[in-house]
Amino acid sequence: MQVLGREVGHIRSEEQHREGRARALQPLAQIAFALVHDRAILAQPVGEGLPPGAGRAQFRSQAGGTNDRQRAFGQAAVERGGACGPERRDQPGLGPAGLGIAGKEDDARMAHREALRASGGPAHRALATLGGGLLAFAAAVLFAAERRRPLRAQTQAEPRRVVRNLALGAMSMAVIRLIETPLVTPLAERARARRRGLVQYLPGREWLGDAAAFLLMDYTIYLWHVATHRVPFLWRFHLVHHVDLDLDSTTALRFHAADMAISAPYRAAQVALIGVSPRALMVWQNWFFLSVLFHHSNLRLPLRWERMLARVLTTPRMHGIHHSTVRQETDSNWSSGLALWDHLHGTFRLDVPQRAIAIGVPAYRDPRETRLGPALRLPFVRQRDAWAPQPTEPPVPLARSPAETREEDAPPP
Ligand SMILES: [Zn+2]
Predict the structure, then answer these.
(1) I want to staple 195 with a disulfide (CB 3.0 to 4.6 A). Which of 93, 200, 217, 333 is the partner?
(2) Of 330, 302, 316, residue with least CA distance to 411
(3) Rounded distance from Cα 209 to ligand 1 centre (Å)
(4) Contact at 8 Å (CB) between 323 and 225?
């Protein structure tokens, strides 16, 4: 009896183990699914394939379908609470009928459609427009302020460089809208509705989970930034951002469109595995955009303020050091939001005077190579050793003497 008991216990724990593993892999399966089917599903009009006026009662009757497979799917969905969660069921025109019958594929379709619906409501659109307007206003204020109080002397002709960075930025934004947003929005909806992802297991109030999600998003972006420098394939694309020979708020937009496409699956993995709710995602996205604009800016803040801010946030002087031609300096200040991660990892630096910094990458100092065409081609051509200077190019500091690594607050000459 005892042996049998032990065996039953063993089988159960095996099953539990398998179940746990399947559950752990589920977010990855969701991402893969979203990647493959996203465009097709989004192309369908909202409500297509869902019977008009379909409701819970109809769903239940369909759940008792005509064959075993239908019954099993239907029953499983009913047990999950209609698969949609109560808040979804209450949304008019978004009846879950048929969901249990068609199984997981329709599950994902519904999440996508819900995302479309959420982004299509007039109130949501008004809020998004207002948020977008505020971000654009903040960018314009920063653009003007950094020209009134510059931190580093600019080396490139102004209108051309700005136009080029804005053009690259527009392409990147388009890719974010076309690929990243449709990918991550349904995953965030799903995380909240189904309580999937790391922070969704946290006890306590919802805002605590959102705060944890915010911190984890910020930290995993730190890790991603390190990866974009360390992994040669990712560096090809991130290089386009680093070859800018000046650093200001327009550099914050200077990313290769393919860089945004490559980072979209990573962003999806962050959202799915962390379990970021739509609210936490919106807060983090706005915060991240503002932070990126701010720390790329060429705005001279009083050194005392900046030292205080750098305990918490990524600041312009911190990021100026990250864009230096001196490799040891580039390999620091990886944070893009909270500076906490650099403090924790010992990668924080604020000991280089900004006037001693040459912005850029040693192997790409020819201004012609930073133009739009070469920048777009850069990831796809043969790569140079980024840290070896080209013989034809003007000398740039590749190392710094200890005497030079002294913080100063003198305005640029
Ligand atoms: Zn970087």
Answers:
(1) 200
(2) 302
(3) 29
(4) no
pLDDT at 104: 52
Q: Taken in order 167, 170, 174, 179, is the CA torsion positive or negative?
A: positive
Cβ proximity of 309 and 261 under 8 Å: no
* Centre of ligand 1 from the C-alpha of residue 332, in Å: 9
Q: Count the neighbouring beta carbons within 10 Å of the beta carbon of residue 173.
A: 14
323 CA to centre of ligand 1 in angstroms: 7
- pLDDT for residue 77: 40
pLDDT, mean of residues 326-355: 95
Q: Are residues 130 and 60 in the same domain?
A: no
pLDDT tens digits, 157-207: 888 999 999 999 999 999 999 999 999 999 999 998 888 899 988 887 888
How far does residue 312's CA lie from ligand 1's centre (Å)?
A: 19
Name the domain count of the chain: 2
- Residue pair 314/338 in contact by the 8 Å Cβ criterion: yes
Instruction: Provide mean pLDDT across the span 262-267.
Output: 96
Query: How high is the pLDDT of residue 17?
Result: 52
Ligand 1 mean position to 12 CA, how many Å? 49
Q: Provide the greatest CA pair distance for the chain.
A: 88
Ligand 1 center from residue 193 Cα (angstroms): 35
Question: Cα–Cα distance between 217 and 205 in angstroms, integer?
Answer: 19
**For residue 29, what are the contacts with CB-CB under 8 A and spacing of at least 6?**
none
Q: Are residues 212 and 136 in the same domain?
A: yes
* One domain, residues 45 and 138: no
- Do residues 67 and 219 lie in contact, with contact meaning Cβ atoms separated by under 8 Å? no
Distance CA 280, CA 210 (A): 5
Same domain, 97 and 114: yes
Note the pTM of the prediction, 2 decimals: 0.68
Separation in Å, CA 199 to CA 81, 327, 377: 21, 37, 40
